[in-house]
Amino acid sequence: MEAFARRIKGDVFARLSRVIDPELGRSVTDLGMVTDILVEASPDGPDRIGGADRPVFDVTVYVELTIEGCPLTRTIAERIDAAVSSYSKAILRPHQEVSSMSRDKLTALVDQLKAERRANPFTKAGSRTRIFAIASGKGGVGKSSVAANLAATFAALGYDTAAIDADIYGFSLPGLFGVDSRPTNLNGMLMPVTAWGVKLISIGMFAGSERAILWRGPRLQRSLEQFLTDVWWGEPDVLVLDLAPGTGDMAISVAQALPNAELVVVTTPQPSASDVAVRSGLVALQVPMRVRGVVENMSWYDHRGERLHIFGEGGGRRVADQLSRDLDRPVPLLAQLPLDTALREAGEGGRPAVLDAEGGLADTPMAAAFEGLARNLMA
């Protein structure tokens, strides 16, 4: 029985190596969070399941969390218990003894993670992250709603998704995702806040939505650099950036920091919006950024079976055609999104409108439109 217990200990450790810390994206064993495993034969004796006696063991996993009060403690604990209790060669009753890492151990871990990253992780060789920068020529066209719902759609489709609120003056992603907490500070390295499956960072998480941000030039650019390099993102499949309207400092900073980003221009149908939207796309003439396409928002409103074009028609097509001519390469009209009051109502409630209450894609025309847009972008 003692030899069997030693074998179980090794098997359990191997199983725990597949338990991933949801913030750091590494296994709990690689991170040094599992310090010991104690396997003891249960005094209750074997259980008879499926016509055979199986030995019963109490398994205690000693876990050191990165910080006391880690916000995802419960998630980690549930994953560890599931890894232990699903063992097939014996009946294992999981227990945990939880503590926090010492300051020296935590410092060493953070130093190791920083050394592995060293710089902007999204521009390093071999990065597989697709980056979509959502831009508009002017405010009021629903750019942030498009960015939030697109990110939520990617997550619901199974992509590891991150989002940066790069609209420093008009940050809105925390509200659209229902986030009112701050990122966890892990010895100088920030953990993004996860909501509806999306890893988020926004200046609004630090400043409070009631305070004005008056940043210009170098300080503005430094805020983006910090979001990219001081936050532990792991290796997401998709990064969505919600840019400030227009072609100001932040748009140029994004293009310089993320030359592999793909620009998605959001407009509404009327000429006053579409004419200005072209300028956002033309940023690509000044910096190395590919214009992936155009999204026309608020294209129509369905009212009692009638499709009303409240803001006119054709703005998205005009922007796509003009950018195709000016950039001398095809810029497609990726999607036309309807005007839907659900988009506002859900956003004000802190849940992206494309999602149902469980976080899956809703069975609505709006969700279907965003799913098509997401799949189009990843094609």
UniProtKB/TrEMBL annotation:
InterPro entries: FSCA_dom_sf, MIP18-like, Mrp/NBP35_ATP-bd, NUBPL-like, P-loop_NTPase, YlxH/NBP35. Pfam families: FeS_assembly_P, ParA. GO terms for biological process: iron-sulfur cluster assembly. One of its GO terms (molecular function) is 4 iron, 4 sulfur cluster binding. It comes from the Bacteria. ATP binds at G137, K138, G139, G140, V141, G142, K143, S144. Residues 11-85 form the MIP18 family-like domain. The keyword Cell division does not apply. SUPFAM superfamilies: Fe-S cluster assembly (FSCA) domain-like, P-loop containing nucleoside triphosphate hydrolases. Keywords: ATP-binding, Hydrolase, Iron, Iron-sulfur, Metal-binding, Nucleotide-binding. Homodimer. Belongs to the Mrp/NBP35 ATP-binding proteins family. Binds and transfers iron-sulfur (Fe-S) clusters to target apoproteins. Can hydrolyze ATP. This is Iron-sulfur cluster carrier protein. It comes from Bifidobacterium xylocopae. The lineage of its organism: Bacteria, Bacillati, Actinomycetota, Actinomycetes, Bifidobacteriales.
